Amino acid sequence: MKLIKFTQSALLITLMNTAPAWAELPGINVRVSGLSSGMGTVEVSLFNNAEAFMKEPYLQESGKANEDGVFETEFVSLTEGEYAIVVVHDANDNQKLDRGYFGFGAEDYGYSNNVRPWFGRPDFDQAKFTVDQPGTVVEISLD
Predict the structure, then answer these.
(1) Greater model confidence, 118 or 123
(2) Residues 6+ apart with CB under 8 A from 28
(3) What's the confidence (pLDDT) of residue 98?
């Protein structure tokens, strides 16, 4: 076995030129547009498998839309893999998705890949996307 000897300055230079491991982990930048108003709260739920989809989010972020009807957030330091996103705009801040006459439509919602099923909810495979690098961008329109 051969030992490599570093001088203190060589070790310091090596460490300074090496990015921290977490800086290279994949991440997602989410941009939600077409929000009907700047009122209420936008909730972005990230799912990492089909079994949990629409039941138990892996991660969640929420906040207020800007005056242009846009909300942006990010999920950082993720493992590589497939994910899906569900967005709900709780326009009246009552902590639930209000439904219209047909069981939907009173408040805005959307899915990654901008999936718009005819009836019911999409499945994970329809909404999934792959994350394998930092800065993956996902745009969801609620128009």
Answers:
(1) 123
(2) 46, 74, 75, 78, 83, 85, 131, 136, 137, 138
(3) 57
Q: Which residues of 109-126 are buried (b: 16+ CB within 10 A; e: fewer)?
A: bbbbbebeeeeeebebee
Residue 78 DSSP class: P
**Class of the 22-141 domain?**
mainly beta
Supply 75's token pair. 């999920």
d(CA 85, CA 9): 46
CB 83 within 8 Å of CB 129: yes
Residues in the chain: 143
Distance CA 91, CA 97 (A): 9
How far apart are the C-alpha atoms of 115 and 46, rounded to whole Å? 15
